[in-house]
Amino acid sequence: MARIAGVDIPRNKQIWVSLQYIYGIGSASSQKILAQTGIDPVTKSDDLSEEEVNRLREVIDHEYMVEGDLRKEVNFNIKRLIDIGSYRGMRHRYNLPVRGQRTRTNGRSQRGPRKTVAGRGQRRGMTKK
């Protein structure tokens, strides 16, 4: 099992899929990395030679921000938005959707389970105003 950027990549998958197990590398990035290193994308991970794995490590370490550094950067950006008090920062602070989604009827996964509020709903025998 090859270890690249601190992640054990699976050995029985094609290398372009295996690289996606590294945080910060998607399908497009993995294809670019493989084109740069000259490795066939459909090669299985355990069929790679040690020299090919080293080439992959070199490219990923020098040209891509992945794993811990990328996570730190994302968290720092969110913290900065919260600190300056921007609209997006407030949405992050209150655990609400940030990208303009409606919250009147949807957004349960972001807002969590329903909280019951006293005085809501229609009472028996009462007519609407």
Number of helices: 6
Major sheet description: 2 strands, antiparallel
Question: What value does the average pLDDT take?
Answer: 89
| First-residue to last-residue Cα separation | 69 Å
In CATH, what is the class of the largest domain? Mainly Alpha
Rg (CA only): 24 Å
Number of strands: 2
Structure description:
Helix 2 (27-37) packs across helix 3 (50-63) and helix 4 packs across helix 5 (87-93). The mean pLDDT is 89. With 129 residues, the protein is mainly α. The radius of gyration is 24 Å and the shape is elongated. A two-stranded antiparallel sheet has the order 1-2. The protein contains six helices and two strands.
Task: Describe the structure using short key phrases.
single chain; 129 residues; mainly alpha; Helicase, Ruva Protein, domain 3; 30s ribosomal protein s13, domain 2; 2 domains; 6 helices; 2 strands
Question: What does the secondary structure layout of this molecule look like, with pairings?
Answer:
Blueprint: E1 3-4, E2 7-8, H1 15-18, H2 27-37, H3 50-63, H4 67-84, H5 87-93, H6 108-111
Antiparallel strand pairs: 1-2
